[in-house]
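Deliverable D5.2: sample structural annotation.
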Amino acid sequence: MPARNPNATFPEHDVTTSFSFPKQEETVLEYWKDIDAFQESIRQSEGRPQYSFYDGPPFATGLPHHGHILMGTVKDIVTRFAHSNGFYVERRFGWDTHGLPVEHEIDKKLGITSKADVMAMGIDKYNAECRSIVMRYSSEWRRTVERLGRWIDFDNDYKTLNTSFMESVWWVFGQLWKKDLVYRGLKVMPYTTGCTTPLSNFEAGQAYKDVQDPAVTVAFTLLSDPSVSLLAWTTTPWTLPSNLALCVHPELTYVKIHDKERDAKFILCEKLLSTLYKDAAKAKKEKKYEVLETYKGTDLVGLKYEPLFPYFKEKVRDSPYLASPPSEPPAHSLASPKYADRAFRVIADTYVTDTSGTGIVHQAPAFGDDDHRISVREGIVGKEEMPPCPIDEKGVYTDEVSDFKGQYVKDADKNIIKHLKATGQIIVATTLTHSYPFCWRSGTPLIYRAIPVWFVRVQGHQDDLVSNNQNTRWVPASVGENRFQNWLENARDWNISRNRYWGTPLPLWASDDYEEVRRLSHPLRFRLISDAYCFPPAQIVCISSIAELEELSGVTGLTDLHRDKIDHITIPSKKGKGDLKRVEEVFDCWFESGSMPYAQVHYPFENKEKFEKSFPADFISEAMDQTRGWFYTLLVLSTHLFGTAPWKNLIVCGHVLAADGKKMSKSLKNYPDPNLIVDRYGADALRLFLINSPVVRGDSLRFKEEGVKDVVSHVLLPLLNSYRFFLGQAALLKKEQGVDFKYDPKSLGSTNVMDRWILARCQSLIQLVKTEMEAYRLYTVVAQMLNLIDELTNWYIRFNRRRLKGENGLEDTTHALNTLFETLFTLVRTLSAFTPFLTENIYQGLRPFFPDDVSGLGVGDDVRSLHFLPFPHVRQEYFDPVIERQVSRLQAVIELGRTIRERMVVPLK
């Protein structure tokens, strides 16, 4: 937007009227618009060394909250500081426009609950609905961000739905494909029934809640001796219909007991008899049970038992999930196709514990990661085989489970328990309160289910991730060294595909049998995809650009890469097997946001030199939850693509909570509207409150409106009053002496101790701010700035009031005013990134006191805005550590005297 009035003047400050911080900030905003301040500052910095910054993209489907404001403030402070220290800083806003947050809104609006609903509607219409809301609150975002004083470019923003962005995402994926870092595998993944798609493991950790679940001990009857039952304990009764095995620990001690009250024989872990008897020792003393035999876990391996339910007893193994069955069965699977012959037996693994339950864990390979791993190892299911998974995409039982068909799995718990009680197989039924994962978008409880998905390899590359991360700076360092590094060391392969519609489509075209593949960037070369979890070896065409798709398909003029625009496109088979069709999945939106360093500039199709000059980013910042989100995906992709971390410096903040310590909730209305806070106290107060809080150290902050109010009364008002006092004394000098005060930086050689002291304190502040900001320690800076404000208002001005009023003659008054001006000028320049409004307001009032020739001020040629000025340089001639120590001792003596007066109740006057 061009300047409305580049020669605009700022309204003169009237010391006789009350000062409304919010209204005065709006005056500053109008002035900035008049002179196009932000874009003008960018233009003025062209040609300087580049400082690169990546802005993590938020969704515009919701309004900005205090967490967004916190992170926006941190980013604004750091980038303003970089600009004022001689760098060119491009600041582009970005938008996350794809994925579950958008689709879930549309599903709620249209009552969509399944894939069939979307297909009936048509993906084109569904995506049109999604597109219609992705920027729903963009104008509100812009208004809020600009009102808070953040300088960032909305007109040159990036959006993940842009075709250029999506094409670069294809390129990123293609590079990983080329390096054999992508595979399709059957794994047990977190799955959201509310959004009908698998999630990545890090997404599953984003929303835990304490819930009460059933905890039941179930009896499995031994085939060899029907009078004896193996006892297994579970908190997911809904998985029992899919049971295929029971797992013990090979080294734990197990006992067969005779329960006299039930007149039944049970086998369970010796240490866990308390699961049956609240006080096992007392029960033994009272002879409620008798130990008949003792075993090691290995002694139980191979025992067969009667299935709880008949659904899969006679079931024949399924076909491989990726293609038609191979002509010969894999060597690792058992010869018999029936589960009755290879399942329903005891197996062993060390993951079983003796801390809770019975020491015997029921195995449902479709619904547990360990269950699946062990069942594959033991030959109960094959690596390529879909284990019994009798639920649909919404988590509802299918016809395979006839007794509970049509029931949502979590709702079916009570009916399954009722059924097993009727058959006498529920031995103990209680409840357990525990922390359980929920879908971060739909709010529904997650389940774990086996599903074929696409992965980016992470396991085996953890050392590279850790090493690259260690070459970056984290603030606070402990988060990067502990929390994030621990996550990296234990990272698992990343599920990047979603069975959804509104997102960047996976650029993979395959034949119906998944056989034909073209290797990216090698038009005539083919390769196999094979993995421990991937069968049969498959070949798939991977497309890395629009041009490549047009070349292979013969379709031209592509301008949109969404599913409804490309799913119909086919690629002729090189093997005469008909046409290749695109696989259905779209990318996880985290893959898109992790690709933003490249996709925001359409790399490598455009801006190659620009990207290479700005990568890695000098700075990024987000909240703590991004250690398992954006920070992680950025690092994985950058490590795989370029072998380096994508950032040099990273500030991670804690979370802003409601005053009661709970998560801020719109429905609970437990926090004040950020816009109302700004309307009451101004943006500067809110910014300073957030930055001068534990949240910038990575801790949580309980947001209290009183804290913002205190910033106004204890920080902003004292600074304003110091400035107004200066204006008043300059006016008094004009009135009584007829002298127009002009700031003279060369006349600061006062011999007055207090003048020398406050000037020395200014230099110390400049040096400290520069040092700490270059180390990204924002939390140490604000306190020192506030100290100088306090020293100016409560010490310098109070001690020098008579001098400033002219009682010691013109020369001394001029020295004092010059010193006061220099201190205010230093404060507004060092504070400008933190409180951009008040400092601009004060600066505009100081400008008339500049000398006619400003070349000696070190402020540059354009002084229309404080934010055009460079950060102040330390003036070594004013450093005086001796004076600082002496006045510090004086202050200590005075404070001690005040304390004694208060204790003795002696008035100050």
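Annotation notes: The chain has a mean pLDDT of 89. The two ends are 58 Å apart (CA to CA).
The annotation will be released with the project's public dataset once the embargo ends.
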